Amino acid sequence: MDVVFKYRIPLLLAIIKFLLPFFLQHNAYELQRDEYLYLQQGHHLAWGYMEVPPLLSVFAWISQLFGQPFFMVKLWPSLFGACTLFIACLMTMEMGGKQFALFITGLSMIAGAYLRVNFLFQANFLEVFFWTLSAYYLILFIKTHSPRYLYWITISLALGFMAKHSVVFFVLGIFVAILATPYRKLLLFKQFYLAVGIALLIILPNLLWQYFHSFPVVHHMKELRETQLVHISSATFLLNQLLMNLPAAFVWIGGLIWLLFFKQAKRYRMIALIYLSVILLLMICSGKDYYALGTYPMLFAAGGVWLEQVAKKRWYWTRYAAVAVILILFTFSIPVLLPVWTPNRLAAYYHKYGIDKSGLLKWEDLQQHPLPQDFADMLGWQEMATKVSSVYHQLPDSTKAATLIYCRNYGQAGAVNYYGQQFPFVHSDNGSFLLWMPDTFRIKNLLFVGETQPEKGDEVFDQFEHVKVMDSITNPLAREFGTKIILYENGNNKVNGMIEKGIKEMKAPFSR
Predict the structure, then answer these.
(1) How many helices (H) and strands (E) does the chain have?
(2) Which residues make beta-bridge pairs with 505?
(3) Alpha carbons 30 and 28: distance in angstroms, whole number
């Protein structure tokens, strides 16, 4: 009971963080596009994938054992989010924070971008957790100088690497901080290299997988740079660092200042140097703004301690003001962080308050839309799967076995597989689905799902005798609005060979 009492504030806030998104998100929304892909990876366990390392697929596989219901999918990001909050509070305690500091740290973790991050089944929730865990062990090492924490730091970072490769930015940030402080003497200790060696052993399976598949991560980053990262400016990146956790921005900014300039925080200055290094590296590499989210829990922890120290005696009233500011701003930001109302009501809310002109609703195409891209990516999938299933089951039994269901992108393929009943695995040549495509085909019909109908002159699609648009996605607020379901029938004797040749050519860059 003494332990529970000691940690009562972190435990209570962690429980709130776990439960809150389940109550806030409206049931009109489905899983998000990327979640369908990552769930499919649980059906194809491997040491790596085109998009991410393997750790997330383990949780997808466990969810699969329970039938992958909505709760089991969302359980993992919510649970790890609660654990991240708890660890952030532990950092606060280690830096000298008392009850108010713990409350501010935990409240800050609830009231910002983590509300969404910790409700999406994406590698980001694991990334943030392991960055935070390694920062916690770093603080323990700073306090105790015990070599055993070096091992825990590198193990945490290695597991972070197995969740998302962007942990490299945090590793480089730590390395810069080591070189810039007296901790550079660690480079002379054999325990440091043993710890690094253990980390390398942990990540070795993924490195080997990357090698034998010609490093898809490089291809993936090149594609991101050409299609998305090229549009990111340093000014926009820095502005979004403020906006991502706007309700508690003053907490992490105060924590950063405390770490850099206050005598009481001098021993923890390395934390601030890590943050600044990561931000600089991401700016140089045109990283997305949310790549830095793993650095803020440690700043919230420091900010909680800072605020507790300055809000004393005659400034005690500022404690109430700080809590009020966080709660008020959080309340107004909730409709941007999670889809709390029906799509039409949410779009009307954005229009009424000018949010649709603020830039917050800008998609990857750099255009403003009625809903945030993530929210639009949570609509239309069940409609798509139902219509694909309806068309497929209208086919004569004699032709079903010779019908390939093919989708243009991984979201479509993942969603139709997730919702689809009693039809074969749905294929795509997009992302990791390419590696799962068979090498041989024996088809006569093709059930196609795509944003646009292939034009005349497409050498594969021209091999079918009959073409008919069967249906389309009708939800105007869904990102997949207008996606067509097209049936290609009676392919000639060339079609299978042409498909096999095309797939072989597409797979070739990812094999040795």
Answers:
(1) 24, 5
(2) none
(3) 7
